Amino acid sequence: MDLRLLPSHNQDTSGECQKRICPIHWVHDDRIYPHERWSDFCIIIFGWWTGRLVEIMEGAEKVDLFFMDGPYRISVNKISASDVELTLPQGEHFGTCRVLDLVHELLRELGTMINVLKEEGGSEKCVQSLTRGQTMLKSALAE
Known about the structure:
four-stranded antiparallel sheet
């Protein structure tokens, strides 16, 4: 499982990092979702995904990782204490992976986004928000 984010390709013209749009998609076994050119409000959805992955690590059986628009989401269904099945909106199997792999992918991309924001002199509020997300995920991993 691989989350691909290209945070340096900022399409934000508003100056508000919550409105920052970045190319982002999931890749598993050479399958891409939603599609290779998908762009989304990365700061906002990272906050959503962080909360959902913490829920899975705390025992939830199923969570949805929503993108901002349309029916686009990946459902994360626990199939064992350490593994999850990922399904698309129509119930189509997207892949199976370890919960930890999913968490580490998001942690990696949170770190990338934080570094880009710092390099660009981005909003400290958004850096702090993403850093809180990192802390939440790392705390859940430590439990």
